[in-house]
């Protein structure tokens, strides 16, 4: 396929897409853990906050979230501090995608935590561990294994959602395809090219996730046989 | 294109922060432009800002005998950046509007924008509301052209508003649009390019009394007056006409 | 209906007395409601078309004959592995690259050149890939005893599918299908990028005139939440109607509740 010299721009865009996806994954995982902890917490107000968070995110389009954060945050900051603080497209994108990822990850972590037998929690308490110790020493290490398949799927969704950030002008893969299509008047060629790159990223991610799952399950395989 | 623009922007930011560090000399004026509105302002292949606005800016600085630093800034953040003192003036084909005058001050206009209809060559396309009835016309969202289209023809034609001007051009070329309303001078640039060669202006220009000025901070009256004097001077000594002729075969003042 | 909304808007305008953002809310109410209507059309039409496309895709996908399963496999993989935004642009802007399409007569002028139909095509293709995967999982989840019983009754393969497996599979996926429709509702906001004035498009239009970005985005978010709630309610009702007589023990219907579980978690991509 003749890319009219736009090939390197697509690659540069792919790099930004990956940076965006992994940065959002990092913050999204933290949000998800906090959310799950809040949902299972004995404090009612925390549970309420977490439920509101996940319900809101489930009903609001990701595109709207990206736009609210990009245009809205500066306005809120301006009104609060009467000072203009510029939010870069990248920061806005990471914020929006992390928030969206975090909401779904909250559910994954929550059900994973519930899957861990209650007996373990009780025995930890019985030997005098505090609630936090039980969480950090007993539950958290096992969480990874149980939550991995769900998180893997969420990462694939996140990877595709990064394309939305092109709407606020971040030079990601989608946006570079957009620029190239406008410049060369060959929209089909460039959007198809972008689609194939996204597909490739999906395939690679799936293989990596599968590998991670294999590794995470290794200690358990011996016990089963 | 976009890439180079960002790159130039970060360069410009580095440059301007370095400038601030070495204490700004009294007569250095920092001027922002957008760099995405050809032929008025754009980033050339070497990453330098160029275009009508930039040449006018340089001519004004020469007239004022000041050193100028040209930086590029995204449109959405261009007024806030001025207020945050990142630069001292905006020369970026900005229309003087009441809304903007509440937050910044404008010089006297340095050119007048008009709108125009664009349609395929070889077709009759009268531009009165009756003849346009039922046709599909496009414009860019959040522009004066888009507002004009919605306000004056919204009830008789199908209005399609695009995120970018490029997408409107794509749909005009594909035949999805019967015509387009846009700022005349950038459209002139497109019509003279290969992609726009099958299209032409239709009907009369639409004069919406859209004046383009230089924006400065509201309390910067001194700078505003210096710009005003310089604009008048370059119009009188012919520098303006010289720059004008490089871009358009007609006067846009 | 629209007259009523315009009257309501005018009445609200007399109440707001120019206080922002309420004044702009009232003024743009009719356009936003038009947008809601377009959003609903997009979601419902592509939900139905996507469903109809998904059934044959799923049936081909579970076949053991490589000639049959390769196409749906690639199709599903493509539409699930790429962003919806790319798909919409591919359908809308991409098609205009082929000049020969413009000679297709009404197919070009009334369908492919209309952003409305392009959005419906893109959404239907996208959602059918997801629903087909759901269907495949559901067909395989129909308890073996039921197909064996049908076989014992002397039903042909075709009869088994028609009378036992497909209706049963439909019951199984109903909650997950509802979930998919809600994801489609969220995805439909992308129609605004191809000039369509859906709820998102109308919102962005209002913002470009009033500059009240935060206010209108928040309002739109609120309306999307209401639409989500309405859809959830609708599918709960449908579920009760459809699954009431066959709520078997082994089907964890509650586990498929859109509020509790997400489809993306439910059926692994592999």
UniProtKB/TrEMBL annotation, chain A:
Keywords annotated in UniProt: Amino-acid transport, Cell inner membrane, Cell membrane, Membrane, Transmembrane, Transmembrane helix, Transport
MF annotations from Gene Ontology: transmembrane transporter activity
UniProt-listed InterPro entries: AA_ABC_transptr_permease_3TM (IPR010065), ABC_transp_permease_HisMQ (IPR051613), MetI-like (IPR000515), MetI-like_sf (IPR035906)
One Pfam assignment: BPD_transp_1
One GO biological process term: amino acid transport
Location relative to the cell: Cell inner membrane; Cell membrane
PROSITE patterns on file: ABC_TM1 (PS50928)
PANTHER family: ARGININE ABC TRANSPORTER PERMEASE PROTEIN ARTQ (PTHR30133:SF2), CATIONIC AMINO ACID TRANSPORTER, MEMBRANE COMPONENT (PTHR30133)
The family this protein is said to belong to: Belongs to the binding-protein-dependent transport system permease family. HisMQ subfamily.
Name this polypeptide is given: ABC transporter permease subunit
TrEMBL record, chain B:
Signal peptide: 1-26
SMART domains documented for this protein: PBPb (SM00062)
InterPro entries: SBP_3_CS, Solute-binding_3/MltF_N
Pfam family, one: SBP_bac_3
Gene3D superfamilies xrefs: Periplasmic binding protein-like II
Annotated Solute-binding protein family 3/N-terminal domain residues: 28-251
Top-level division of the source organism's lineage: Bacteria
GO cellular component: cell envelope
Family matches, as CDD domains: PBP2_mlr5654_like
Keyword annotations of the record: Signal
Localization: Cell envelope
Family label: Belongs to the bacterial solute-binding protein 3 family.
Protein name: Amino acid ABC transporter
């Amino acid at each position: 396929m003749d890319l009219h010299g736009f090939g390197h721009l697509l690659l540069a865009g792919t790099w930004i897409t990956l940076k965006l996806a992994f940065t959002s994954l990092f913050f999204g995982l933290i949000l998800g853990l906090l959310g799950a902890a809040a949902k299972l917490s004995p404090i009612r107000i925390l549970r309420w906050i977490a439920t509101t968070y996940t319900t809101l995110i489930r009903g609001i389009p990701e595109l709207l979230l990206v736009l609210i954060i990009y245009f809205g945050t500066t306005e809120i900051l301006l009104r609060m501090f009467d000072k203009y603080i510029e939010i870069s497209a990248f920061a806005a994108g990471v914020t929006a995608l992390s928030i969206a990822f975090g909401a779904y990850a909250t559910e994954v972590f929550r059900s994973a935590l519930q899957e861990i037998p209650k007996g373990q929690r009780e025995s930890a308490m019985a030997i005098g561990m505090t609630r936090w110790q039980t969480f950090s020493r007993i539950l958290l290490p096992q969480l990874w294994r149980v939550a991995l398949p769900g998180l893997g799927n969420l990462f694939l969704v996140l990877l595709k959602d990064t394309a939305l950030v092109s709407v606020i002008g971040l030079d990601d893969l989608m946006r570079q395809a957009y620029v190239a299509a406008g410049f060369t008047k060959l929209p089909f060629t460039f959007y198809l090219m972008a689609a194939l790159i996204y597909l490739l990223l999906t395939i690679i991610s799936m293989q990596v996730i599968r590998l991670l799952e294999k590794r995470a399950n290794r200690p358990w395989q011996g016990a089963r046989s | 294109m976009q890439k180079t623009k960002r790159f130039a922007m970060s360069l410009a930011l580095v440059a301007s922060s370095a400038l601030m560090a070495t204490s700004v000399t009294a007569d250095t004026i920092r001027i922002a432009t957008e760099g995405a509105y050809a032929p008025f302002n754009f980033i050339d292949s070497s990453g330098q800002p160029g275009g009508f606005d930039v040449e006018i800016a340089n001519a004004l600085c020469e007239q004022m005998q000041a050193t100028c630093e040209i930086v590029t800034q995204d449109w959405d953040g261009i007024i806030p950046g001025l207020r945050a003192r990142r630069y001292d003036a905006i020369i970026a084909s900005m229309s003087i509007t009441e809304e903007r005058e509440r937050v910044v001050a404008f010089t006297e206009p340095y050119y007048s924008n008009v709108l125009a209809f664009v349609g395929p060559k070889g077709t009759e396309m009268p531009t009165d509301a009756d003849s346009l009835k039922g046709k599909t016309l496009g414009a860019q969202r959040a522009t004066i052209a888009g507002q004009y289209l919605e306000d004056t023809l919204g009830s008789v034609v199908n209005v399609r508003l695009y995120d970018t001007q490029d997408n409107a051009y794509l749909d005009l070329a594909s035949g999805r649009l019967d015509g387009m309303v846009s700022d005349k001078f950038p459209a002139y640039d497109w019509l003279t390019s290969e992609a726009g060669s099958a299209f032409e202006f239709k009907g009369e220009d639409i004069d919406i009394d859209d004046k383009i000025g230089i924006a400065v901070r509201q309390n910067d009256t001194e700078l505003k007056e210096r710009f005003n004097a310089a604009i008048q001077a370059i119009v009188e000594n012919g520098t303006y006409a010289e720059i004008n002729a490089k871009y358009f075969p007609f006067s846009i003042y | 209906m629209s007259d009523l909304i315009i009257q309501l808007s005018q009445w609200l305008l007399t109440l707001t007395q120019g206080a922002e953002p309420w004044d702009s809310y009232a003024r743009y109410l009719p356009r936003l409601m038009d947008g809601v209507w377009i959003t609903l059309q997009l979601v419902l039409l592509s939900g139905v078309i996507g469903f109809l496309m998904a059934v044959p895709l799923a049936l081909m996908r579970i076949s053991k004959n490589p000639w049959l399963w390769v196409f749906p496999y690639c199709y599903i993989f493509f539409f699930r592995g790429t962003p919806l935004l790319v798909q919409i642009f591919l359908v809308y802007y991409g098609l205009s690259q082929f000049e020969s399409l413009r000679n297709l007569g009404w197919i070009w002028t009334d369908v492919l050149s209309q952003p409305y139909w392009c959005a419906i095509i893109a959404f239907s293709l996208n959602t059918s890939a997801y629903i087909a995967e759901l269907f495949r999982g559901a067909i395989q989840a129909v308890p073996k005893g039921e197909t064996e019983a049908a076989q014992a009754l002397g039903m042909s393969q075709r009869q088994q599918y028609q009378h036992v497996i497909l209706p049963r599979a439909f019951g199984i996926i109903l909650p997950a299908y509802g979930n998919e429709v809600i994801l489609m509702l969220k995805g439909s906001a992308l129609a605004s990028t191809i000039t369509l004035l859906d709820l998102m498009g109308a919102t962005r239009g209002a913002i470009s005139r009033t500059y009240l970005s935060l206010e209108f985005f928040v309002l739109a978010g609120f309306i999307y939440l209401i639409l989500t709630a309405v859809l959830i309610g609708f599918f709960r009702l449908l579920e009760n109607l459809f699954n009431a007589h066959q709520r078997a023990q082994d089907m964890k219907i509650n586990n498929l509740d859109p509020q509790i579980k997400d489809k993306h978690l439910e059926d692994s991509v592999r």
